[in-house]
């Protein structure tokens, strides 16, 4: 086994990672598939924290389109992320990984409240930490929560796991001449208004010089290959 490039990672994935063929909700088999991906990375000796979205259960824009106030819609989305966190925790525990769920909104009967030093200690002890309920504040996406938590725990990289293999300057399914980026600067990402990641999250990473890698969660061993030093997906960094 080669030397690993990153010792501690923050893995950010959308709630869609847990969706089955129905296109909504939580599919336990899909959660089990994600757990196996995480275990493959964990077995390299990597400390792993995870932030997962809630779009498979609730999208705040749906409520807002019907007149719901954004804070209410956003808090509902935060609760959806906790449901996903618990589903992923269950899948990970069933294959032998010790996990902790920490939430930004206190719900002590099912999860720990988020405490930065406690999260870091869990990681040091080899536990997978799943952060739920976003930042605990409306108007912030789970991308921003991922960037914030990555900084707080001292992660070496923020990995945005999606359904696309890399960032392009336009949709490659629509434009066959779309330019693919292996590397792109934070500034260029923001100036091009690329939508694969929230601009607030990218700005936060830029200000703290935390690299971001956007890759395909379902590409064969994509995260493992990245950890072992292979060029996978697109890296957003200072160039």
Main features:
single chain, 239 residues, alpha/beta, Carbamate kinase, 9-stranded mixed beta sheet, two-stranded antiparallel sheet, 8 helices, 19% strand
Notes on the protein architecture:
This protein is of the alpha/beta class. It has a single domain (8-237), classed as Carbamate kinase (3-Layer(aba) Sandwich), CATH 3.40.1160.10. It has helices at 28-42, 60-65, 70-94, 116-124, 142-153, 186-191, 199-207, 222-227, and strands spanning 8-13, 47-52, 99-103, 112-113, 128-132, 157-162, 167-168, 180-181, 183-185, 212-216, 234-237. The strands form two sheets. A nine-stranded mixed β-sheet has the order 4-3-5-2-1-6-10-11-9, sandwiched between helices. A two-stranded antiparallel sheet has the order 7-8.
Mean pLDDT over the full residue set: 95
Overall spatial form: globular
Poorly predicted segments: none
For the record, the CATH class is Alpha Beta
What is the tally of beta strands?
A: 11
Distance between the termini: 30 Å
Helix content: 25-40%
Domain count: 1
Strand content: 15-25%
Give a short account of the largest sheet: 9 strands, mixed
Biggest sheet, spatial arrangement of strands? 4-3-5-2-1-6-10-11-9
CATH topology assignment: Carbamate kinase
CATH superfamily: Acetylglutamate kinase-like
Q: Tally the helices: what do you get?
A: 8
Radius of gyration, whole Å: 17 Å
Order of helices and strands: EHEHHEEHEHEEEEHHEHE
CATH architectural category: 3-Layer(aba) Sandwich
Class computed from helices, strands and strand pairing: alpha/beta
